[in-house]
Amino acid sequence: MKINIVLAQIKPKLGCIVHNLAMIEGCIERAISEQHDLIIFPELALTGYFLKDLVPDVAVSMQSPEIIKIQELSKKISIVIGFVEETIDHLFYNTAIYLENGVICHAHRKVYLPTYGLFDEQRYFARGEQFRAFDTKFGRMGLLVCEDAWHLSASYLLAMDGATTLICLSSSPGRGVDGEMLGSAAAWQKLNSTTAMFLNCRVLYCNRVGYEDGINFWGGSEYVAPSGESVIRAKILQEDSIVAILDDGILRQERIVSPLLRDENLSITFNELQRIATERGKTWQA
Amino acid sequence: MAGLTANVNLLKQILVGFVRDEVLKVGLCKVVLGLSGGIDSALVAFIAAEALGCENVHAICMPYKTSNPESEAHARLVAQACGICFSVVPITPMVDAYFENFQDADQMRRGNKMARERMTILFDHSALHRALVLGTSNKTELLLGYGTLYGDMASALNPIGDLYKSHVWQLSEAMGVPQAVVDKKPSADLWDGQTDEEELGFSYHQVDALLYRMIDCRLTYTELIAEGFSSDFVDSIRLKIQKSHFKRRLPVIAKVSNRTIDIDFRYARDWGM
């Protein structure tokens, strides 16, 4: 089976849902007309990233007209998109959803909300509590939102839960200009490649571009094959749209060559984690 | 040190993109900047010209009667080299009119007044041209507080505020800033023969090496001494950063309500852009 996947490297306007939704619909319509199977948008594509106190103002519920609109479009193409979700009890999450056949088949609420350096997410968002793989018509997948991917346990859990494709939505700020390539780009590319290789998974990384208050988002969205090789990569610092072709045969071959996941011993990991959880913090050292 | 050697192509791409994006998204297409004849404003002019097209960049040279004539000549040279619009607005009449009444004002008050006079001219021209004012302060001088609050530190956008002076030199060379401007000794040009490095008491290369380790790498005091910096130098630079911090912040507001601007009323400036 071959799947054509669009990574839509867009530039959302900060806090302008109407504008962003129109742009997103345009991308989806184009992808439908080009007969692609799945289109992926970045983290907080509907709203922009440095929202601060705007979070409650741009939050939408799963039943909102905006999400219903995207849901409608998902009858013709599968869609992954990030936005601010407001729950019935008025909590605000940095959420990514996977839609197909007109339904939301999975929602992932960002678990690891970075609150250091230039980030301040935990001040504004509630924390997600789960990493769950889910079935789609293109196989079992897992969603990660940006910082989630930097926690080994997150992608590990998704892979152990059976995901063969990890989709990471990102709003990664570019920084570090003393190397051959942008520091953030180098770090992410290493991470995506390593994650794919360790877990024999495909990694689909969709990052945004544009500037917010002087902070650039560097783009460079990519599809990394289970071997760790970046198969296709979007432009750096510019709007772009690339099409990744996922071939099930490649995944099969890779999993035959390196059956790391088959050999992974879940019970050892589980037992040791339980022991660590019990023991950790019990000894006090000056 | 790696951190002080920039990948100039990447840096240029980010800064040109920054000016283009931040200007166009507010519905404008022009910028104004003060061109002193020095390297910082020259670099900003080159970045702006590349970002917006030279016809959309208005540079103003604002000499005082004691300014070195070479400064204006260099400003003109820079404007010609990147093809931007150029005009000269002398500030002598306004500054002298003011100090008629304060004749014993010292060098610092006069320097600050000149910087603020230039600021009012730039912001007036920003209204005239429907343009944003570009700042030209680099990270070294911003950290040391070597600038005038609401004077040369005032702007709408500053493309080089995260570049140490060492970076400014590298990028200027790469972008084709005229060699005479790159090579000359940096000067605030407030009096005859003044140079920044003489006034500050250290070279930009020395202080950049320290600032990079202190600010960007967050080395401890002990680690800085172990790297060969004298304790006097480290102490004096630390103090300069601390004492000038007020210049890098907005005015402090007394909090009385539940939502106070910049304390718990927090929005990005690019709100809605």
What's the N-to-C terminus distance of chain A? 58 Å
| Counted beta strands of chain B | 4
Any idea what the radius of gyration of chain A is? 19 Å
Please mark out the parts of chain B with pLDDT under 50 across 5 or more consecutive residues, or reply none.
Answer: none
SSE-based structural type of chain B: alpha/beta
User: What is the number of independent domains of chain A?
Assistant: 1
Biggest interface = A-B, 24 and 25 residues
CATH homologous superfamily classification of chain B? HUPs
Tell me, rounded to a whole number, the average pLDDT of chain A: 96
Note the quaternary state here: heterodimer
Text of the CATH class of chain B: Alpha Beta
The largest sheet of chain A has its strands arranged as: 5-4-3-2-1-14
Sequence of secondary-structure elements of chain B = HEHEHEHHEHHHHHHH
Strand count, sense and barrel status of the largest sheet of chain B are: 4 strands, parallel
